[in-house]
Amino acid sequence: MKGNKNMASMGSSGFLIIPWLLLAESAALFSAGVSSGKSTPAVFVFGDSILDTGNNNYLPTLSKCNFPPYGRNFPGGKPTGRFTDGKVISDLIVENLGIKDLLSPYLDPNLGPEDLITGVAFASGGCGFDPETIRSMMALSIPTQLILFQEYKDKLKANVGEQRSDDIINRSLYLLSSGNNDIGSTYFLTNRHLEYDMTSYAAFLATQASESLVELYKLGARKIGVFSTLVPGCVPQGRTVGGGGRERECAEDFNELARLYNGKLISEIEYLNDHLPGLKIVFVDLYGPLLGIIQDPQRYGFVDVKDGCCGTGELEFAVLCNQLSSTCINASNYIFWDSVHLTEKAYKILTSEIMKDINKLQNEIKC
């Protein structure tokens, strides 16, 4: 496919080398960022394609989208590796917080110091808590994303000093989104459903999420927003593979597993809030608001709730949604851009719904 020619591989040394010399030359920018007085100086995001702003561009994976028609409604009309037609939730949140317009991917070799002091994305499309998901998607796992964050911290400390670095890390906002690929793909489309019943698999994912949050806490995070899943049985792919029949109704077993996981995730969050000093984690519900949009699309100006804008709208995403694919004329009529991901318009509506949860963390400055 035409989209494949834009796929990039990492260098022989593994992850791309970030131009850290720019940081040394621009330490004054860090000082200005720390002393600005903002309650949230930076945002760091981890997890999957909901938050990935282009890291997969630099990985040897088919789970990428740095080619048309992705990015059709992004500023300049260019594909950037965001899994939608425009901006993703990461961008919209930092914009809402008044930090900057876009959140850059950490693996971007063109990152400047001004990008780094205000936060970057470590998220990787296709990521999940289940190791089987990582193996099949060839995405950055959460542990790998945390290793990259430690690398970021070391470079930050080397350039601005321990006190300023600790201040940035302590007061920043951290966001985590994962579980969507585990539920929407791995559990029902591999042998995982033979190895676990839904309750035990939900518990397994929630435990993995909790362990990731503990590691993030050890790295200095004190204000964390943890996203629920989307509504996996009602995304176009879920309807196609699990809904059954010509009507392609929502796949209820997909949604049941998501609800089980989200419930167990809330319990894990409550436990961590009670037992880790200085930590504030907020559960950010995407499932409920998105289900509300799907059930009452006319209220939000949507016409099609079952199909993605790209291709047939039933199965295409990532490399299967490419220059050869037909696309809808007006993406704002669609909740979904491809068979898995939302349009920028839908992400904007979701972001407006969840900012109340994000703002709960704004004034939480812990020691």
List keywords for this structure.
367 residues, alpha/beta, 6 strands, GDSL esterase/lipase EXL3, GDSL_lipolytic_enzyme, signal
Q: Radius of gyration in whole Å, from Cα?
A: 20 Å
Task: Give the strand content.
Answer: 5-15%
**Overall mean confidence score, pLDDT:** 89
How would you spell out the order of helices and strands? Answer: HHEHHHHHEHHHEHHEHEEH
End-to-end separation:
51 Å
Keywords: Signal
Organism: Linum tenue
GO molecular function: lipase activity
Pfam families: Lipase_GDSL
What order do the helices and strands come in, and which of them pair?
Elements: H1 21-25, H2 27-34, E1 43-47, H3 89-96, H4 113-117, H5 131-137, H6 142-160, H7 162-171, E2 173-177, H8 180-189, H9 192-195, H10 198-218, E3 223-227, H11 236-243, H12 252-275, E4 280-284, H13 287-295, E5 304-308, E6 334-336, H14 344-359
Parallel strand pairs: 1-2, 2-3, 3-4, 5-6
Family: Belongs to the 'GDSL' lipolytic enzyme family.
Keywords: Signal
Signal peptide: 1-24
